[in-house]
Structures are given as structure tokens and as C-alpha cells.
């Protein structure tokens, strides 16, 4: 059934909505020389929380829903984003995961969204979930502070097997409002990825829900990277309905699926990031996980809970 679903075609419905009323969402639309569409959601455009919500759903390949609400942290009410999908493997791993490092000349950006399912970035994940997309149109979300050069646009289109005229590129800086929303909207996805890395078949995750606060954006890149990640690793909660024949399997892996299993836990992410030379590949991958996970095994009815929302660290992140 999942092979018949096109994450690009579903997501492009949301892209068209974003482009139809740019004034409403605080985005700016432009075209490259080759005809690709740029949707600026925070570089020169102001962006918005509602733009971040829609971009989160685009990242999820149109197979999930995001909603804005609020969360109270030590008496302070902050915006929050919740996400839900009943296609966790395809939506989270096959689309939302920031799994494509787009790199040409002096330009580097992390790419997420449905275009990955055409370019198969990385191929190993699509082999695990048994999915690949077929579409003559593509959409990619780049976490970047500058638009990609024409060479990078051509590379993305070529890897996806589409014409540049059929390529939509959403640009979301880390330090932007929309950027903070779409990062917080990755809480459920980070948990799905951690469970997969621990050996659990992601296709056995039938429903996924996540929620995290949207911390105040910061103009500094390292501080923005810190706060946006702190929102998940200290404030993110995820819930999954899964099918597992053996409760012991879940008992063994769940404690390792939350951020507190990392040696970096207890440090602000900005500090972790700076100590790693701002190189994600030098950071313990266990930290990229929700603060709290609840798993309901539909096969046995057993509910597992691990981790906690760390309000003190969230407040420290805000006032640091």
C-alpha cells in the first residue's frame, strides 16, 4: 500500500498552498534561471509560525499533520508544535529526516523532505523501510541561511530525476521562526530514527505523535542551533503505537532511545555543538532523541515509559 503513495505529490499540495498566499505566511517566492522555485521562509522573508507548521508537514511528505499550541515551562508559556502521522516509517524516515547533505563548491546545506525519496538519500534507509517514490515533481527543504547556487539546484534536480522547472526548494534558516518550528516538529521523527538504529523495525511503528516547545529564536547561529535542539532533547515527548511480539525487546531498547542515554546529556546543545567544532558528526548521536518516549505495544497492551521533560535545562537554554 505504501508503495502507491507519493510523498512528493502529497507534499506539493502543501507547497502550492504556501505559494498561493505568500503574504499570509510571510514567505517570498522567486525563480532560478533554470526555472526552479525558491520559497524563502526566513532568509529575507520574515517567515512565521504558521509557515513553520506547513513546512513541517511538507517535510513529513504530506503524510502527517502539525498543529501549534503552547507549553508551560516553569510558569512561562511558550509556543509548541505537535505532529502526528499514521505512516511513521515513510513520513519520518523516508521524508522528514534531514538525510541529504547538499554540497557543491562552497555551499553546504542539510536537505530534508520528500525529494529524498526520489534521490534515495541515504539509500540504506529506503532499503530498510521498503519504499521509493515515483514523481516528476519534487520538493526539498534546505536548512540554510543562503539560497543554493544554480549548480546545487541542478544537482538536486538531477539526483531526483526531475526537471529544475518541476523542483520546489523551501529555504529555512536555523535561526528563523519557521526554522525553530520545523525543528521542534521533528521530535517524533528523532525517536523513530533512534528506535531503528537500536534494531527495531520501523515498519512495526504504526502511529507516531510528538510534541516539543518552540523556544525563542536567537540571531546567533550556534545559539539558535542550541536552543532548537534543546527543545527536543530536553522538552520533546513522543508516543508510538507499535507491534512487537516480545515485550522484552522493547524493555531492552527503549531506555536507549531517549536523550538521557547520551554522555552529553545535561549540557546545553550550544555547548556540545561548539565543543565539537560545530561538526554534527563529532557529536554522540544518542543525544539526537526525544526527552521522553511512551510506547504502546498493540500486540500485548503493554505500555512503556522512559525519560522526562527537563524544564530546568529548557529554562537554562532560554536564559543562557
The unreliable regions are: none
Proportion of residues in β-strands: 15-25%
Characterize the biggest β-sheet.
6 strands, mixed
CATH-derived topology = Methenyltetrahydromethanopterin Cyclohydrolase, Chain A, domain 2
| Topology, number of strands | 12
- What percent of residues adopt helix (DSSP H or I)? 25-40%
The DSSP helix count reads 13
Number of domains: 1
CATH homologous superfamily identity: Methenyltetrahydromethanopterin Cyclohydrolase, Chain A, domain 2
Shape: globular
CATH architecture: 2-Layer Sandwich
Estimated radius of gyration? 18 Å
Order of strands, main sheet, comes to 1-2-8-7-6-5
Structural class: alpha+beta
Element-level helix/strand string = HHEEHEEHEEHHEHEHHEHEHHEEH
Task: Report the top-level CATH class.
Answer: Alpha Beta
Topology, element by element:
Layout lengths: L6 H14 L1 H4 L2 E4 L5 E4 L8 H11 L4 E10 L2 E10 L2 H9 L3 E5 L2 E6 L3 H4 L3 H7 L8 E6 L6 H11 L6 E5 L5 H8 L2 H11 L7 E9 L7 H13 L3 E6 L4 H7 L15 H7 L16 E6 L5 E5 L3 H9 L1
Parallel strand pairs: 2-8, 7-8, 10-11
Antiparallel strand pairs: 1-2, 3-4, 4-9, 5-6, 6-7, 9-10, 11-12
Helix pairs in contact: 1-3, 3-8, 4-9, 8-10, 10-12, 10-13
